[in-house]
Amino acid sequence: MTPSTLHYTDSRDKAYGVAGMAITLVALDGEDFFAGIDLDAPAGEHLIMSHDYGVRCNPRMSAKVVWEQTLRELRLTASLALANITCRRYLLAHMSVRPAELDALRDALRHDASVHLDMDGDEADSIFEECRSYADRLFRHHGVADIAHNFAGRLADRHQMSGREALEILASLGLQ
């Protein structure tokens, strides 16, 4: 992903991007990976994932289990990246996601799918389209938009919160 294509324009833009990721993490039942949020962290580290996200340490795990876990996390990672840009573009900028932004994310997914799962471009593109379609539907939903606006505002005020705090706030806003 090229920084010039996907960089944040300001702190409000960052709050909306991270809010989109947190909402998507809950919507996709990934709360078990959610450790916290830090808007002051270096780029790419604003959403803090649990220590076991992406870890394949158990040599007794079957290749099938490792592959399925890697696929689940690849889908989740792609969904989070798409949620970040989709939430920012739809709800903050009131525009569509730019083709160059989608291309950058698609290329990153193709690379990771090839390296980690030995998938070809068509297989990776299918995953990308599923994740893109989900992000599109999610952030076009009026109820989710209201939650995102509210959560991004709270996040912009606080800058940091634990995963538990973020989940409690999202639940209080109606996301469960």
Describe the protein.
This protein starts with a helix and ends with a helix. A hairpin with an 8-residue loop joins strand 1 (34-38) and strand 2. The longest helix has 31 residues, at 63-93. 67% of the residues lie in helices and 6% in strands. With 176 residues, the protein is mainly α. The protein has a single domain (10-172), classed as Methane Monooxygenase Hydroxylase, Chain G, domain 1. Helix 2 (11-27) crosses helix 6. It has a three-stranded antiparallel sheet. It is built from seven helices and three strands, in the order ααββααααβα.
Features:
6% strand; 176 residues; 3-stranded antiparallel β-sheet; 67% helix; mainly alpha; Methane Monooxygenase Hydroxylase, Chain G, domain 1
Distance between the termini: 31 Å
Shape: globular
Rg measurement, Å: 16 Å
Number of helices: 7
- What is the third-level CATH name, the topology? Methane Monooxygenase Hydroxylase, Chain G, domain 1
Q: How would a crystallographer describe the biggest sheet?
A: 3 strands, antiparallel
The chain-level structural class is: mainly alpha
CATH superfamily: Peptidase M41
Sequence of strands across the biggest β-sheet = 2-1-3
Name the beta content range: 5-15%
Number of domains: 1
Q: Which regions contain 5 or more consecutive residues with pLDDT less than 50?
A: none
